[in-house]
Design a protein that fits this description.
The protein is mainly beta. 7% of the residues lie in helices and 44% in strands. The chain contains one helix and 22 strands.
Length: 318
Amino acid sequence: MNRSPFKLLCLLVVTLLSALSHGRAESPFIGRWALTLPSGSAGWLGVEEKDGKLQGSILWSGGSVLPVDGVKIDSDTLTITRVAKGVTETITGKVTGDDLALTTVKSKGDGKEFAKADFSGKRIPPVPPTPDLSKVKFGDAITLFNGKDLSGWVLVNPKADNGWSVVDGVLQNRVEPGKHLGNLRTEREFEDFNLKLEVRTLAGSNSGIYLRGIYEIQVAESYGKPLDPHNMGALYSRITPSVAAEKPVGEWQTFDITLVDRHVTVILNGQKIIDNQPVLGCTGGALTSDESKPGPIMLQGDHTSIDYRNIVLRPVVK
């Protein structure tokens, strides 16, 4: 079939644009990366192309996932820029397969560099398809807290000050203002599971339930506040609850949390606030950034006072 030169030119242009677009999408830096930071703590990096522009977000140990100020891919080098309080941090990286070798260095207005350090990243595999929870089988219930003592629980940092104790069947953490105490974790480790527990916030409570020590379900005194990814029941800084279901301070509240195939469901006080949503990486304060590993249930105790009870887990059985 004969084609006019104009049509052939149009076809060639479309083919070239498609190839260029495909080439950008195939950049080895695009994706999500589990970071092991210079301190050895967990971090996360996401690099994507949106509307023809590179975008990035990063989690640096604690706190929230935050957008970076600049992303550039030049040949075989990734450059990330962050600016805060007059300090510019430049992170450069090179990729080999699924491994990322990174260097961070900071500078102020005078251009002098400081705090240079090397660290590493590992490509995070794609999130599995959304699981059909109606077909997931759970094993026998495991009572994680016996209501009598701290059997089965240990401080994450054995040298940290301990505010945890058991009083009248309640696992309570008491923190004096200005102090930072230890986080508590189960001795046992788990993969996928359903977790049920009760929690009671106190004035200004800020705690968290870490699933496998990696993903934090936020526990906070946020009754009456607008929806936010840092409020009660959120996957901290990653998934905002669909509805505010928390109760006022001092009331016992119920959590029903399911983690299957890197998807999380959260039911707070009988209302589903996160519905089988994918988890894109670790959250601040995670014990590790490696999402392939089993891990403990960890309760955050380093910030404020909080109460827990009736902690029961049912593991997924294959």
